[in-house]
Amino acid sequence: MFFHINPHNGLAIYDQIARQIKYAVAGGALRTGELVPSVRELARELAINPNTIARAYRQLQDDRVLRAVRGTGLQVATGATERCQDERRALIRDRLRTVLAEAKQSQLDPQEIRQLVEGELSALEREGV
Amino acid sequence: MFFHINPHNGLAIYDQIARQIKYAVAGGALRTGELVPSVRELARELAINPNTIARAYRQLQDDRVLRAVRGTGLQVATGATERCQDERRALIRDRLRTVLAEAKQSQLDPQEIRQLVEGELSALEREGV
Amino acid sequence: MFFHINPHNGLAIYDQIARQIKYAVAGGALRTGELVPSVRELARELAINPNTIARAYRQLQDDRVLRAVRGTGLQVATGATERCQDERRALIRDRLRTVLAEAKQSQLDPQEIRQLVEGELSALEREGV
Amino acid sequence: MFFHINPHNGLAIYDQIARQIKYAVAGGALRTGELVPSVRELARELAINPNTIARAYRQLQDDRVLRAVRGTGLQVATGATERCQDERRALIRDRLRTVLAEAKQSQLDPQEIRQLVEGELSALEREGV
DNA sequence: GTGGTCTAGACCACC
DNA sequence: GTGGTCTAGACCACG
Questions:
Q1: Of A53, B58, B107, C36, which is least packed with CB atoms within 10 Å of its CB?
Q2: Tell me, in Å, how far CA of B14 is from C1' of E11?
Q3: Residue B71 maps to which CATH number?
Q4: d(Cα D67, Cα D64) in Å, to the nearest integer?
Q5: Which nucleotide minimizes the distance between its C1' and the CA of C72?
Q6: Could you give the CA distance from residue D25 to residue B10 in angstroms, rounded to a whole number?
Q7: In chain B, how many H helices and how many E strands?
Q8: What's this model's pTM, rounded to 2 decimal places?
């Protein structure tokens, strides 16, 4: 279980942790029923205040991504994979729409935008393959 | 001179003001040499504390968008139009790139992304015309 | 951590604080990663309003001398030492050039200027040793 | 009578005017007994508020550089040439001393300072000849 | 009238 | 505990 935490990027640390766990769940790195590291263990590993880890885990329980199993720990909830994927895709669609609207408002040439998109997509396809 | 301020959308008020002025400068609504509303006047108009306006204006001076003329007011600096346009476009390109990279990582179908982009662009073109 | 603040010498207090911190960073008294005194602590120590300290620290963050670590404090940024040294030296070279140009314009004898410079330098060398 | 006024360099306009008149007096461009332009005339010429010109002239009278002649205007006072030259030289000596002290404090190599001084002086000598 | 600075005191999110 | 933001009200120099 590896996370990259950057205390300087303006995002709250608990939020970075929650996002990365959701990301791991959406990507299949964490599967339904699997246990996440304990608060103490993860806190030690990342050299971060346990309260901050606990807060991330609490938020993930609120979002039904994790589920407490008494005396055992926190496991990935059933249906969490799909929920995380859906959430992630909805989020991305939303941001894409926002950025495109702003690009248009800033009078970026639509043709320029298409080129930018195509350039990014083909670059990513090359990397991805 | 119209601004839309939303006091609790997470962005600081001084930042919303600064952004909107940069936007007005980039869009040509405010031209080089033109005076922006005085601190007190804008504060009155938006029902916001003058210190908050002053902070926005101070930040804009640091960014060389505004320049103080002692005893007279704050005017749009020379070259500010270009700087604001460049900044805005660079920002949008950057965000577009980030969103596309994440879309790809989340295994959104590239074809789906293209459709999303085309849909947004044509919708915006319709509005724009 | 000692600062000398003179509230009415024409320089703004927040500027005096920022300068002295830059000076401490350039001189190695404050090293990369080290935490500066908290806003409240320094405010108490100097008997100055915390907002004024905060403004100095905000400016130092804009200048990439300090960087915020959320919930922890403000630390000296990486590369700040070099940046502060460079800035300080560039500033001094500039002022030296200006003063010499004015001295020449005022028909101060170049020989007199050389003597003045030598006198100052040797006096400073004596003190320094 | 030509002045260069820069409303953006942070110096007060009345101060720029006063300095430039002192400079003209020190350099012999304005001689004892000569009349300076009237407040209104200079205000019109520089497109500056007459109050600002008046304030500059008031300061120059306080410094015994100008002297009011009833019904006539303001003339350069007797002894003003010497006083302006002395003031200017003293000011420059003082600033030179300050800059050198700071240069030393910033651990600029004394040898580097000498070179800087020599470079400036010879450059100025070339221009001056 | 203008902007610039400072103080005092409040509330917030985060660690 | 930390920094960040905002409000309220004061005083200053300048034009």
A1: B107
A2: 17
A3: 1.10.10.10
A4: 7
A5: F2
A6: 59
A7: 5, 2
A8: 0.88
Which residues of A fall within a CB distance of 8 Å from B110?
121, 124-125
Structural domains in chain D (count): 2
Q: Give the C-alpha separation, A55 to A72, whole Å.
A: 18
D and A: touch, per 3+ CB pairs < 8 A? no
Residue of D nearest to C118 (CA): D114
A62-80 pLDDT tens trace: 999 999 999 899 999 999 9
Determine the distance between B56 (CA) and E9 (C1') in angstroms: 22
Residue B7 forms part of a structural domain? no
Per-position DSSP letters for C83-104, written without gaps between them: HHHHHHHHHHHHHHHHHHHHHH
- CA dist C127 and B30 (Å) reads 56
D97: buried, middle or exposed (CB in 10 Å: 19+, 13-18, 0-12)? middle
Same domain, D29 and D68: yes
Determine the residue type at D89.
R
Q: Look up residue A80 and give its amino acid.
A: A
C3, part of any domain: no
C92 contacts D108? CB cut-off 8 A: yes
Residue A66, SS3?
strand
Closest residue in chain C to residue A52, using alpha carbons only:
C71
B92/B74 same-domain check: no
Question: Do D20 and D70 sit in the same domain of this protein?
Answer: yes
CB contact under 8 A, C128 and D85: no
- For B53-110, write each residue's pLDDT tens digit: 999 999 999 999 999 999 999 999 999 999 999 999 888 888 888 888 888 777 777 8
> Strand E: which nucleotides have any atom within 7 A of a protein Cβ?
1-10, 13-15
Residues 6+ apart with CB under 8 A from C8: none
- Are B86 and B118 in the same domain? yes
Query: Are 3 or more Cβ–Cβ pairs between C and A shorter than 8 Å?
Result: yes
Residue nearest to nucleotide F2 (CA to C1'): C71
Length of chain B: 129
C97, part of any domain: yes
